[in-house]
Structures are given as structure tokens and as C-alpha cells.
């Protein structure tokens, strides 16, 4: 579904399509692959949308990126995974990731906003059936939560691998959308007495809490320090 | 779409339906209204899913709760709002909110998880056309971002009200889902040398940054201090 007369995208960018060009605030859209990857990689969960019985369903789900492929985690019993079926016709999905970076408090109610970075991926998801790809995808899912962690954990055994389903979604029809910067009040409102500004939201970890049953002498790993 | 032979829900709970009873980890589901409200009220954005040309679309959107009604913000030009049409047939939507509270690092790759709280709302959204309801909804949207803020800002004028569209979605078919607690490793893995535990994520504000053009003497309001 290419937009007609769309200019050729620069190298390192996704090609815009009818459904990745926003109708609202198109100046906030980006198709830059590095930017898209960074937004995806920073998120702990995505929101996966699919259609069931004609109605939309949106579920939060763990995911990971490997190059230009996303892997989405589920159990073999979960609804979107069962819908990919056997033989797998593919499940049309929309996968969305959003970071809220700051609250924008304007003098006018109308110009209140948030600074955010989001990515929307349209495509068709398929079950991962190749055992080697599945194993790599599960490592990627663990490393997505904490980089370096997959190598520092007991790998999945056969029973666990069988109980876990993974679906893949290629990054092809993709866009990012961002709001950055400060307050955009109307010039005639600047003298109003209301405080206006940017309220950044806190990011990152608080102090990790070790499991009470940790083996004696187990230190906090460097990747959490 | 009621589940047959479902017991009567307790007062203060939503009635489970076929699509609000999860197929996976049903013990993590809750229909408690207070819990649902608290999860919704703490979120800055929701993910709004709808169907366009047979395919799912999931977009991050500002929203607010007033009692048992959600109001979702948009411009009059945005796709989901245009789809509600005139006369308004209603747009089937799924509105989902998720908080990631902590990362769960297990000794086994398989038991890695996150602590989260999510709410999924199924229903049909309608445009708000009553001017008074729209004004109240816009106040609620501002107060949702920072409680008490609507009264400390310049209210929307006629032009701004006309440029803003609001859709409403009643809280009827609703469920929450939560994971709390610590690591759930297999007993035979407890002696493994891998660190395991809970990594809480940071929440809340960092120091607010005032707009450079603030009127002289404008103090940081108490609701941000």
C-alpha cells in the first residue's frame, strides 16, 4: 500500500505508506530506522492490536527486536497465537510502543500536551516454528529486558521451549512519531499568571531487590549496578 | 456478550464477559472497580485500538476518566474521530492502559517476567457533541495529567473547543490484569549462581523546568512541588 508519488526514502529510512503518514501533526512523524530502533529497544512492553470477531483487541506484550524483525512473546494458549493457526495464514497486527517523556503544562488548557516518542508497526505476524529461530528469539526477549541477561541465566529446556510461543513481525510498514521541546502557548497568553513549563518523568531503575533464596555469595551483576 | 453461568459479580465489580476473561493466567485478572480506576487514573496515555479497512490500528492517546466514563482526546481531523461519523454509528474500540512496575529476573530464562498492572476496556466510542459535556471532558483531560491543573489555566475558547474532538467510552466491559510479587523459579534452579530478584522501575516527576517566558514572579504551583 504505497502512497502514490511518494519521494524515495533516504537510505536508513522506512518507506512511508498510506497508513504510516499521520493525518494529524505530520511534522512529528519520522521514518528513520535508527530512531525507530532506539524507541523500540527502550520499551519494556508493546501494545499488540489484532481483530477478533470483527472487533479490535489491544494487549500489552513482551517483545524484542533482532535487526528488522520483532519477536512477540506469548504462551501457546494465548488468543493471538492461536489465531495464527496451522497452517499459519498470518495475523494482521498493529504493534505500538510509546514512551511518555514529559508533561507539558501550558498557560492555556488547550496547549497542554505531553512529550512522547512512539512507534507504530503494521504488518502480518507469523508463528515462529523453526526451533533455532525460536531459541534466538527467546534469548532476545530476555536481553531486551536487561541487555546481557540471557547469557547469565539457565537456558530454556525442551519443555519450556514447547510451552512458549513466539510470533514474528517484520519491520517494513513502520513510523515513529515524537513531540519534543517546550510549551507552545499563544503569544497573547504569555503574560497570564499560570505557571507553565516542562515536567520531566523519571526513568530507569530503583535499587534492585535480591530474591530471599539467592545462593550464598551471589553478587548483583554489573549490568544492574 | 455475557459468559453463561457466570456468578453475579460483587458490588463494585464489573461483570466478566467472554472477552474480559483471559485465556492465560486468569488468576491475574480482576474486575474490581476501584482497582481499575486507580490503574486508569495513574496512566498518562492509553493505547486506543480500532479497525480500519479490516486491519487493526493502535494509537497512543490522551484520556481521562469521569466516574464510569472515559474521554479520549483527538483533533477533529484524526482518523478514529472521523470514523465515528455523522450521524455517529459508534466506533468499536479497545482501550488499554499498562504500567510496568518492575522487572523480574529469574535464574531461568523462562521465568523472566515483569510486574505490571493493565486495564483493557472493550466498547463502542461515540463523539461528544454536547458543549457542556465537552467542556467538562476537556477539564478532565487536563486534570488527568496533573490533578488540579484545569482550574489553574486559561480555559478553552470557542475556536479551541471547535478544534478539539472528544470521544466517550463507557466503562462496562472492563478487566484489569496484574502481576505482583517476586521471582518464581523452579525449586531445582534455586542453587544456580545467577542473581535473581526484582528491579523496580522509577516512577514520578523529575524537577519541573519553567518556561523561559514565565511572567515575573510566577511560582511553581503546590501541585507540582
Automatic annotation (TrEMBL), chains A, B:
Alphabetical list of InterPro entries matching this protein: Pyridox_Oxase-rel, Split_barrel_FMN-bd
Region of interest: Disordered: 1-29
Protein name stated in the entry: Pyridoxamine 5'-phosphate oxidase family protein
Organism per entry: Streptomyces nigra
Coiled coil regions in record: none
Signal peptide limits: none
Amino acid at each position: 500500500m504505497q502512497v502514490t508519488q511518494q519521494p524515495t526514502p533516504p537510505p536508513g529510512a522506512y518507506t512511508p505508506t498510506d497508513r504510516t503518514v499521520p493525518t494529524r501533526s505530520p511534522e512529528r512523524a519520522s521514518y528513520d530506522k535508527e530512531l525507530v530502533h532506539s524507541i523500540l529497544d527502550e520499551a519494556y512492553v508493546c501494545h499488540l492490536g489484532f481483530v477478533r470477531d470483527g472487533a479490535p483487541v489491544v494487549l500489552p506484550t513482551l517483545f524484542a527486536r533482532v535487526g528488522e524483525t520483532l519477536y512477540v512473546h506469548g504462551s501457546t494458549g494465548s488468543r493471538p497465537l492461536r489465531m495464527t493457526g496451522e497452517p499459519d495464514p498470518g495475523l494482521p497486527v498493529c504493534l505500538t510502543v510509546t514512551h511518555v517523556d514529559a508533561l507539558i503544562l501550558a498557560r492555556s488548557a488547550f496547549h497542554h500536551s505531553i512529550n512522547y516518542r512512539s512507534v507504530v508497526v503494521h504488518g502480518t505476524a507469523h508463528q515462529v516454528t523453526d526451533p533455532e529461530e525460536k531459541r534466538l528469539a527467546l534469548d532476545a526477549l530476555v536481553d531486551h529486558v536487561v541487555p546481557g541477561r540471557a547469557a547469565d541465566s539457565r537456558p530454556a529446556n525442551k519443555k519450556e521451549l514447547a510451552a512458549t510461543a513466539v510470533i514474528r513481525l517484520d519491520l517494513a510498514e513502520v513510523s515513529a512519531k515524537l513531540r519534543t521541546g517546550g510549551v507552545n502557548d499563544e503569544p497573547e497568553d504569555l503574560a497570564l499568571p499560570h505557571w507553565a513549563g516542562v515536567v520531566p518523568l523519571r526513568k530507569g531503575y530503583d535499587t534492585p531487590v535480591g530474591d530471599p533464596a539467592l545462593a550464598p555469595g551471589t553478587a548483583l551483576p554489573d549490568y544492574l549496578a
